[in-house]
């Protein structure tokens, strides 16, 4: 296998070789190289075509990939649990059905990334850029999305229970049938977001939260103030408007 034929694989192997051993899962010496090669094979770009070569389910558990350039890579079904991807470049990366539980994605670049049905439970996505990302059916339970950019993100049927979305940008995001039970939306911007049939039970928000204009009065009327300028949406009435209900007056 030459470096000219597999330049991305060679680069990833070099990067993994430089990773401190204490940040990686301990493996018996006889399996170390084989494990790293299998993992690196999954990093090839989605447009690449190698004869007889199919993507494998990469195992990158606890790997240190800080600042790694994995843009366009195929990491479908990869296990990236507890890995460190701080500042990683994952633009258009395919992470469909991937395991990213407790993964550190602080400031990661995930624009146009495919994260459909990915498990991001308790992942740290602080200040991550998820513009135009696909997160349909993704699990973001207890995830930290503080100040994350989710502009135009596709979050249909996403599980966002207890997610921290403080100061997150959700403008034009599609949250149709998303579950935001007890999520923190204090200071979040949901201007022009689609909240059709979203579950907002127990959501915390503040006067700094920007709701879709046509929903503000409806949500305000079904919320209780729990501390100065901070509110919580009550009970079963937190679901978005059902068809046939009159539209609330827009915010003046």
In short:
The chain has 252 residues and is low in regular secondary structure. It is built from 3 helices and 3 strands, in the order ααβαββ. A hairpin with a 2-residue loop joins β2 and β3.
Amino- and carboxy-terminal Cα gap: 66 Å
Oligomeric organization of the protein chains:
single chain
Number of strands: 3
- The helix count comes to 3
**Overall average residue pLDDT:** 81
Task: Assign the structural class, choosing from mainly alpha, mainly beta, alpha/beta, alpha+beta, or little secondary structure.
Answer: little secondary structure
Q: Tell me the overall shape.
A: elongated
Largest sheet: 3 strands, antiparallel
Q: SSE order, as H and E? A: HHEHEE
Ranges where pLDDT stays below 50 over 5 or more residues in a row are 1-6, 21-56, 237-252
The order of strands across the largest sheet is 1-3-2
Beta fraction: under 5%
Please give the radius of gyration in angstroms.
20 Å
Description:
The protein has 252 residues and is mostly loops. The chain is built from three helices and three strands; from the N terminus they run H-H-E-H-E-E. A three-stranded antiparallel β-sheet has the order 1-3-2. Strand 2 and strand 3 form a beta hairpin. The longest helix is centred in the first third of the chain and has 13 residues, at 29-41. The relative contact order is 0.07.
